[in-house]
Every structure is written in C-alpha cells, then in structure tokens.
Fold each of these.
Amino acid sequence: MHPTLVAPSILACDFGRLHDEILRAETAGADWLHLDVMDGHFVDNISFGPAFIDATAAVAKVPIDTHLMISRPDHYLPRFISNSHNITVHVEAECDVRATLSAIRQAGRTCGLSLRPGTPFSAVTPFLADIDLLLVMTVEPGFGGQAFQSEMLDKIREAAHLRTQNEWQYRIQVDGGINAATAAQCVQAGSDTLVAGTSVFRAPDIAAAIRAIREARI
C-alpha cells in the first residue's frame, strides 16, 4: 500500500553536532526525521521542545515527524505545528484525543496516533478511520537503546488487517529496537514506516544501515 520509509530518530544523534547529524542522515537516505518530544511526566525522561524542532527544521530537507510523548499535546500543539509535517500524539494522553487529531488536520498537517506496549489495541480502534499514521511502540517509550518487544507484532498485524478490511490509508509506523532484523519482522507483519535511532546513528556506515532497514525482508 505504501513504500517503506525509514525515519532516523534524532534522539540518538549527537546533539552537539545537530545540523551535521541531520545532513548526515539525509545524505545517507533518510526519508523522514523522527523527533521524540518528552515532558518528564508522560514518560520518565525529558528530551527537547519546540526550539529544538525549529533548529532541526532550519536545515532539514526531508519531512519532520514529531512524536509528542507529553501529557497535554492539545495544549502544546500550536508550538509544534509550524515546523512539523506529521504530528503523532498518544491515545493515553490527558486530552480529548479526537479533538486533538482534528486540530492537527485542520492546521494542514498529517496526524498520527500512538499506543504504549501495555495499552490494548482496542484503545486506538475508534480513531483509525481518522488518522494518517498509527505508531506502534515496540519498546516502552522514554529512552532509546531498548530491546525490541516481539509481542507487539500482533498489534501491527491487527492494524494491517483492519486497514485492508476497511480500505483505510494510514501508515503503520514502528519505533523501538529497530534494526535490519527486527525491521524485517515488522514489515512482514504489515509495517511500512520504520523509526530507528541507535542502529542508524551509531552504525559504522549510516547509509548501509538505512538501506538494510528499508530493504529488510524475511
């Protein structure tokens, strides 16, 4: 349905060389840049905010995929709209999820919805007809470098089944422990958008790492 995209996670790059790291990822073949915004409340970590997104947008040539891992995405949304192409919020967030997704769309951006590993898939099904992207977290959100949770493949399969059954168009994105081997499992299950941090930015050959993830098949 969709071509496979690779979105390197900026959380894993060298922040002290942000612009160089962005250019390095783009030159290596990144399709999107994935930015994880964490508030220290929704997840037990603090990453960066709107100014960091703006600094990324100042040099990025590919779309910016902003993942709001924050308690009140509805409140902070206006601060991320201008320089994000896609904005993903969590179904567990303390807000009116449907209204927040609608606000993203009304601002001319595509909207995504995500769920934690411990959240049942049924939590997102009421919103699937109204999103452009479903992000299945394959680790507990908050920190990079965690091991891939293979049991989340069932959620990817369910998302792919419902998408086909209902002729919906949303992308199925995965994030957490993604490398060439786990990407192959995710693509086989139905994913088409792969977020990878450590396995890309810390690879000896970043272009080869991105290519291996994009072309991964079982």
Note: Residues 5-214 form a domain with the TIM Barrel fold (CATH 3.20.20.70).
Amino acid sequence: MKKIKSVKTQKGNEINLFANDKKCKTLVVGVFHGDEPQGKFLIEEYIKLNAESNLYFIPCLNPDGMNMKKRTNASGVDLNRNFPTDNWEYTARNDFFGGDSPASEIETKFIMSVIEELSPKIILTLHAPFKVVNYDGDAKELAKKISEIIKYPIEENIGYPTPGSFGTYAGIGKKIPTITLELDETCPVEELISPVHKIFDMLDK
C-alpha cells in the first residue's frame, strides 16, 4: 500500500493518505479527535495484513491532537466542527470550538482536497466512545450491514448539535453516504480488530 498524498501539520507531523488503486470506492478515516486513537491502530493493523486492499485510508487525521491526548488539533479546533456546512457557527473556545472560520485548519483542508481529488462513493470515519453506528446521507442500508457485524445500534442523530461536522459536509452537502462508527472506548482495542476488520473487508468488495 502506497502513500499517495500527505501534508505536514502545524506541529510538523504528517497526515497520510494510503491506497493501492486510485479507483477505490471507499475512504476510511481515523482519529478526527486526538483523544480517540482507536482508528489509527485498527487501520494500521488492517494495512499490515491486507497490503493489496482497495480502500483509501487516512489512519490519523489529527496527529497533533493524538500526541497531546487532546480532542482538538494544535490550534484548539475540533476538526469535526470545522467544515464549511450551512450550519457552521462561531462558538465558544472550548473542546468543541469550530475554528475562526470554516475550513480554517490544515487537517480540514487536507481531507476536503482528498474528497475532491478522489471522489469516494462511501466514507467511514472511526470515532469513540458512543458505541453506535451513526450515518449521514443515503447510508441507512450500509449502516444496517455495519450494525449486523459489530452489534451496535443505528442512530441517525447522535443526540446533540454538531454544527460544521464532517458528516454534514460529506453526507449531506456532498451527498456521499457517510458512516460515523462510534467505537466502545471501554473495550480493549485489540478486541475491536475482528469486527472492524470484517467491516473493512465488506467495504473492500
């Protein structure tokens, strides 16, 4: 699997996109939030075992936040509130701060450019801790298939406002079926390998 695109963050860490074939259908993204590192581990373990996979992978979108064990990036911005959506809003500077303007962050610009260049047909993002399969856009049937594998309930609404979220940007705005898989943070990440890798296998067909 090759690194086909990368960018340096504010702290000089790399965000990488890996793929084998630029005609892949599905983009899988880990670590929007630095305190939710499970996605990076699960993606990297999958790549080790499936070097010929036809999925696009961004194992870690927020390496600065992950290194600092913080939800936000190095600028204190919640990347999952920083997308140029109709409902983006300027908010208080807390862990959910959406930035000074939409798409102000290096990380946000990177994933937006990936979507523009590659036009994925499906997007899966890995989060924690809510143990649900959340979806945006025309992804209900896909959410059902994922739910059957991992045994999490399906939730169209995560239960609180998410202005400027990636799901709204990609799933609603771009009309790309988008799944936000909220993993169980109380479960050892090694025990998530089997169900999550089965989901990747399903998406790779």
Note: The mean pLDDT is 96.
Amino acid sequence: MRQLLAHDLIENGVNVKSQCTLPFYYKEIKMDAGFRIDLLVEDKVLIEIKSVELLAPVHFAQTLTYLKLSGLKLGLLINFNVKALKEGIHRVVNNL
C-alpha cells in the first residue's frame, strides 16, 4: 500500500520519500537506522501505514514518537483495513 500511495502522490507532483531512516541519539551515540518512516511528504508530513483489524494505542504512540524524533509537527496514521478509507485516517500532532 505504501508504494501505491507514494506512486500516486509523486504522479501528482508531490515530493515523497519512502522508507526514510530516522536516526536517533542515545547518550551521545548516534543510531543511524533506528526507525523507518513509511512516507515523508514534502519534508513536512509524516505518514505511517498500517493494515490491521483495529489500530492500537501503540500505533499512535509510534507515530508520535517518530514525529518527536524527526522534529515534525504533523503526521497521519492510515489504516487500510477498513470499509471506507476515511474511517482509517487519523491525524497525529506533535505539540500543536
């Protein structure tokens, strides 16, 4: 799903990066490939893709953690395992 969404966005002229590594620091040690962002749109919006029966609190926590580590403010958590896609889109914010 990630690749299809990225393809459609790119086709419409949107700058999208897929599977971006997100480094983090632990006690002054840089961990280069600690986490992977599913999609990064225009270097401003983080998108995490899921396909699960029900989103759990850990999915929202993961998205918020990625926002905090990246310094981004806005993220979307999208679950594709729903009847209507609009039911699966959740906005996650970092200190807005």
Note: The beta strands are 16-26, 29-41, 45-50, 74-79, 89-93.
